[in-house]
Amino acid sequence: MKLLDIFFLACGIRQCVNSTLLDTNPYSQSLFAWYQAQDPSNFKGGFRAKEAGVVPFVPNFDGDFFPKPLDILRKEAPKKEAMITVAEMESVGMIVFNKLFAEPYSNFGQFVDETYGLDVTDYYEDVKKNLTNFYLGNVSPLDRNATNKQVCDYVSDSVFNSGALDSVRSYAKYGNKAYFGSFNYFNKASTDVADVLQPFKVASHSSDFKYYFGSGVMTDFKPNTEEKKVMTMVEDLMANFVKYGDPNGKNKTKTWKPYNLTQPLKYYKIGYPTSGMADNFQNGRLSLYDDINKNSKKYQEIVYGFPKLSKKVIFKKSG
User: What domains are there in the chain, each with its CATH number?
Assistant: First the structure.
């Protein structure tokens, strides 16, 4: 298979090796035509969109793919169960490949630039200053290990955790039954290249993949006895949810409780040898992003349909 074919498949465009069969879906044809029309230099060194954010190839909030603000769409949608999980430290498996991580303390502002921008909030410089103070305010530039952790926490929170928590709250707000969890199991003896490279030996983005599907991230997965037990556990959770809309299945003991807005930081911690409900998701850091979103014109418009902004907010330091 040609590399180009693999690229198109990864983008959701079905194309055979000889490039003669293209999915009849008009959206696939349109997307394929768009790629063909681009100058190849646009893709060298990574494609960058003009909008803030780290994932450029995603649906645009332009009134087409999402015809109404998200809060209205959620309210109008039929009730549906949801199971939303993150890993203990989402970014740690990827951040080692970011060139900014070579000097995380001095480059922290650039990490923020990758996530936020002038198109996101009217108070961009204030947000940048407050994020820096929150994550690095109590850290010495000479303490590389502490700095690494804080930067990993920032990327995990801004790209993954805050959105996951926002989603589960949105489900619960309109009467949907949602299960919120964190995959916290990590085999410190793992030989998977992605695991070996991590500066912190904790579950990260996609490290749970092999336990659900039996396939390694960057190398073959050969589970030991303990890992096989973890596989059985998480596969049961997933299968139960698919079959019954409840990860507990038909068990009388419901260890994974549905998310409740009255206990907003309660979640199910997936670990070994025990799993169970836990409190203070991500140590309560994510209230910071609620404050940022109150001042984010893009967030307010996408979620509620109007850029209603509150006054600027001063944030506390992390820890």
Answer: 3-304 (3.40.50.1820)
